[in-house]
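We modelled the chain as a single entity of 273 amino acids. Its sequence is:
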Amino acid sequence: MIGSEAELLVHMFCIIDRQKVVVETLLKQGFIPREGLSVPHLQDASKLVYLSPETLRMLVVFTMADVADQYFGWQDQLFGGGGKRGSMIIPGEDDATLHNPTAIWPGVSRPGLWMSYLSQLGKLVRTYNPEWRVDDGKPALDIPPVFDNCTKVLSVDDEAEAIELYWSAVTATDEDDYHKSVNVLQKCITKNPFAFEPQVLLAQKLLHVGDFNEAAQTAKSALELQIQWGTAWDKRISFGSWVAWTRVVLQRAENRESWPTSSWEVNQLGLVR
């Protein structure tokens, strides 16, 4: 179904301890070694599994995709990283005494504390030199487009603050306070400009008051980030739903259509052309 080469990679990734390889070794040392790594077999420590530099690079990229697609606030509670520290995906910060194996899934489903980790992995990917690659006639993998092609690193503190700001915006009871909502969302975007969801919310608020130009520009920025990620930070709804709603907001902004004054009309919004 996936091809023999991909099957070999899948098998290899299942017989090694990826946490130790990615977090405790590669991320800790800050680079992909040219000579590759030999690591213990997950089921038999007396056996070694050789990972070439190219395989290590793919392992890091696949880990980025895996975490982005699966992680949300529940893992923060599960592993004790609900604040700024303690997450098992932060090197040196995993503290088993903070783990909570009875954390109820899915919890309140806040965005999780994982983007900073991915930005560090992206920086790690860039330490791989394409010249090390054996020329087998196949195209090399591109640098992931997120975090400005993996050139920027998001700090844990900024990410944690952005989560708090975002959550305060989506749970606010005083939504009619336009200036307060916009201010909170703009601060959130400043702290974490790599998540598209705050920009989608901000575009809606701008559209509510007829600021069509700013709403369109913000929605376009959100769509660009959606193309880069292919998955959501706020996983309370599906990625496809986020994209569809963003396109609705962008279409109304570009057509300079005022936001509906009828709740029935809002409920029936959809991109039909």
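As a brief sanity check on the tokenised model: The chain has a mean pLDDT of 88. Residues 53-70 form the longest helix (18 residues).
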